[in-house]
Design brief:
alpha+beta, Muramoyl-pentapeptide Carboxypeptidase, domain 2, 3 domains, 9 helices, 8% strand, binds zinc ion
Length: 243
């Protein structure tokens, strides 16, 4: 009898030890899981690591090609153009996003709006720039002065985002466009189609371009959403991706 009580007691003890140890073990396993997958505590580290890899891919992304005064259109930049209408053209890889946006805009916006300008041929721009510059050179001006004066009236070749075929200008290319329903609609909806307001008033110092409510740039849906979320212009966003 005594012996069996001792055996039962030992058995109970073993069970107790196992049960007491179990929660600790489970917590450890959970913690190990946390390190690898569960965001909680390790979130910032995981995100930074993921972003680093993602960013390398993103920076090769044609949708966020940066063209401005300091970043000329990449040499031999090649695109296939598609027609927006009889006159205007857009990058064929993004034309469906533009068309979808314009169609939905037409359904929702009562006032008249239209695409005034889209793709611009960089060769043509270069030609007219050089012709004008030559006039100044013929007048005896220095190379530097001729270039400066020309660039006051004509965009320097290869520095316009329109050369990429990923931007559109609306209506009269005028600041008052931001008072229209079309502008309000774009502000609310453009990111769903991958478009952003490229030259914001509060980013003039960075873009070095005045506020242009009429100018909308395709960057793709995920970039557009992220840029709006971070409140970054393309220059800032590319910097952010580079880090
Ligand atoms: Zn424009």
């Amino acid at each position: 009898m005594k012996k069996s009580i001792i055996i039962i007691l030992i058995f109970i003890c073993i069970i107790c030890v196992v049960f007491l140890n179990l929660p600790e073990k489970q917590v450890m396993e959970k913690n190990e899981e946390n390190i690898v997958q569960v965001p909680e505590k390790k979130e910032s580290i995981v995100i930074v690591m993921n972003n680093t890899e993602e960013n390398r891919v993103k920076l090769d992304d044609w949708r966020i090609t940066l063209v401005n005064k300091d970043n000329l259109l990449p040499e031999n930049y090649q695109i296939t153009l598609a027609d927006i209408d009889d006159e205007r053209k857009f990058d064929s890889r993004a034309i469906n996003y533009l068309n979808d946006m314009l169609e939905d805009m037409k359904n929702d916006v009562k006032d008249d709006f239209w695409v005034q300008s889209a793709y611009r041929d960089p060769e043509y721009q270069e030609k007219i720039f050089n012709e004008k510059k030559q006039e100044y050179l013929d007048d005896g001006l220095s190379e530097e002065r001729a270039e400066l004066l020309t660039s006051k009236t004509i965009n320097k070749p290869l520095t316009s985002e329109h050369n990429l075929g990923l931007s559109v200008d609306f209506n009269y290319v005028n600041t008052s466009f931001d008072e229209t329903d079309a502008f309000k609609w774009l502000q609310e909806n453009a990111e769903k189609y991958g478009f952003i307001l490229r030259y914001k008033k509060e980013k003039e110092d960075i873009t070095k371009i005045i506020y242009e409510p009429w100018h909308w740039r395709f960057v793709g849906e995920e970039h557009a959403k992220k840029m709006n979320e971070l409140d970054m212009c393309l220059e800032e966003y590319i910097d952010y991706l580079n880090k």
